[in-house]
Structure formats: C-alpha cells, structure tokens
Write a structure and sequence with these properties.
The structure is a homodimer.
Chain A lengths: L1 H6 L3 H12 L2 E2 H8 L3 H13 L3 E6 L2 E6 L5 H14 L3 H11 L18
Helix pairs in contact in A: 2-4, 3-4
Chain A binds a DNA duplex through helix 4.
DNA sequence: TCTCAATATGCTTCATATCGCATATATTAT
DNA sequence: ATAATATATGCGATATGAAGCATATTGAGA
C-alpha cells in the first residue's frame, strides 16, 4: 500500500498517471508529451506497473499502458480525488494541453522519433 | 504537490496521518499507539508539517498535531479517499483499535513514559 | 535555580532511488 | 538474414531518505 503511494511520490510518475487517466498511451507518446528521454519513461512506468497501478500490453512493436483495471474501488476513488488535486497544477494543465494537441512530431534533436501516433 | 505525496509515501507517516484524521494527538500519544521511539515520531511528523499536511501547537510541555485546517478542498477530499484505502489494511485497523482503547500506559521498557493522556 | 518530562535536532551510517549512458531484446519490414 | 524502430534493462555515480543514538531546547514545578 505504501508502495503505491511511493510510486505516486515522483513528479514524472504523477504526470504519467494523470496522462493515463485521460487515455491509454504507448511509451513513445508519453515521452513526446513530457519531452523526456525514453529510458526515463520506461523506468518510471515500470515502477507504476510494479506497484500495480498500471498494466501494459503489446501491440506489434510498441507497448501500451493503461490504468490497471484490477484496482479496488477504494483505489479508483482515491485516484479520482488525486486527479482533481493534480489538475490544480499549471504544469499538469500544460501537459494535458500537449496531449490533446495529438503531440505534433518533434523536428530534430537527439531523441528517437517514433511513429506510433499515426 | 509531489512533496505532499512523498510525505505520504512512508508507512509510519501514513499511520500518523490516519490517526490524525481520527483526532488531534500529541507526540507521546502517537509514539505509544504506534510503539515507536520518540525521535521517529518527531521526525516523521516534521516531514508532514513541512509538507503542509499537518499543523502543530504547543500546550504547556507537549505539542499537539492535527490535520492542517488550511488544506484545499481538493486535498481534503483526497485525504478522505485515501483514508478509505488505508482502512482496508489490517495494520491500520489494529492501530485504530489501540487508539480507541485510550492507549493504556506502558509498564516498563526503555521508552520514556509520558503523562499527557491523563 | 535545578530538575525533569516532552519534544526537536544534529550527525553518522546504511539503504534506496534516480540519472545518464550504453546495450540488450523484441518485432516488423526488406 | 539484415536493418530499423520501440522498448527494456544493466551498471556506475550521485543524491535522497530513514534508522539510531546522542544531545539540545523548552516549559513546568519544586
């Protein structure tokens, strides 16, 4: 139980959870919305999975993540309350806007450019 | 915001928060209910205070802690949801029972015995 | 003022977490 | 089989956090 709270005690993981509360996403989408390197997303998402907060499944070459459908009613309600807390943050709002803009493809840079958000 | 979640990511601090959701308590009551040394309670409670989750005030020689009355409506609701999650834990239930039994005074041991719960 | 109870804090040690980077794995397409 | 994309993972370095113990602070009372 404390493990789940610990998983939720990291800014980037909070962001990821908030995004997944919006809709399921693959790793490359998350990295582009948050503008962070791939290994960070993979690792943080692994912590959330380990805590039983999210679930993943594979579709071809990429992997999707979503809020675990096996969460108890109590946890679902708690996440819903936390969502309202998180949404009072400017940073969270900004990231949600980026998500809704379908994440326009990055031009250059050192980051890998994926094609999953067709 | 992540600081508050971080403050809530520690088992003992979750316990303390749950106790304070029941009623305000002084440090010596908390240490006897949880059966932990004084310095631990002081330190953990300091983290909660630093995160703005609790407030303290002095009454003579002892110091009382309570859930901060300045929390936003969102945070209040979130704590209430978390409370329901926490209450599904056997450990939490056991501690709550100990609290309701007015914390019978410890006989001996290395711990300081306080008199605050007259 | 001296003592004691209640609480806080400084310091060291040990464990855990995160970052950054490189590399490994898996899947699809050629 | 080879190449390329998407994702995961192992490792070293650094940072953060908690435990334990000793000590400091504060207030009440003799």
């Amino acid at each position: 139980m404390a493990d789940r709270h610990k998983a939720l005690s990291e800014p980037m993981r909070i962001m990821i959870m908030r995004l997944l509360l919006e809709r399921e996403l693959c790793v490359c989408e998350i990295m582009r919305v948050l503008e962070v390197p791939q290994y960070k997303v993979s690792k943080h998402v692994a912590v959330l999975k380990q805590a039983g907060l999210v679930r993943d499944w594979r579709e071809g070459t990429w992997i999707h993540y979503e809020i675990s459908p096996e969460l108890s009613a109590e946890w679902r309600a708690a996440l819903d309350s936390m969502k309202k807390v998180w949404d009072t943050s400017r940073d969270v709002q900004a990231v949600l806007r980026r998500l809704r803009r379908s994440v326009p493809r990055e031009s250059g840079g050192a980051m890998i450019v994926c094609e999953c958000a067709k």
